[in-house]
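Checklist before submission:
- one chain only
- standard amino acids only
- sequence pasted in full

Submission:
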Amino acid sequence: MAAHERSVARRATWRPTWVHPWPRGGRLSARVRALDDRVDAWAERHRNPRLDHLFYGLSSAADHGLLWFSLGAVRAARAADPAPALRLGAAMAIESAVTNGPIKACFRRIRPPHEPEGLLPYGMHRPRTSAFPSGHATSAFTAATLLAAGTRRGSLYFVLAALVATSRVYTRMHHASDVFAGAALGLAFGQAARRLLPVQPPRRGRARTP
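Returned file contents:
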């Protein structure tokens, strides 16, 4: 009975230790946690079955970058050229290796508490890597930056990326600060990839993709 009571007490006091070992303390830690708590509380108040379908579905579709690889394949098919898909795939593979390797290893942040327990919808799984930064947000904004080049509808890619990033908070996979950091990192990766592996290299006299 004593062991059970200690276990219950540990679960009851687990919430304040979401972040370990980053942020370490002080004003930055307090501000980050306050931001996360406000956004989490807002998400809890607005949960409903329709949003569940949207955000769990998007989050699952973006696992391993599948959503973005599919969009790259569509771009390649429309151009009758495999280069866009291959360049996007190469850029995202490099981004994923860096984000999920050395960057996450520097932070090792604990993910938010998740309820209810059990199987997640749409075949989702709970990652074991660090919560910071969000890999989904990083890959989403990397891909959006690349795919938006050379098209009149580039803003739609960023809207989709924002929805994917939001889904990670809604599904309790990440804190809001993880997602913001991932989005910023993705934009940086995307800008670098535009120069090194552009999905649509500039060509003189070629019309922009609609």
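Reviewer check: The two ends are 67 Å apart (CA to CA).
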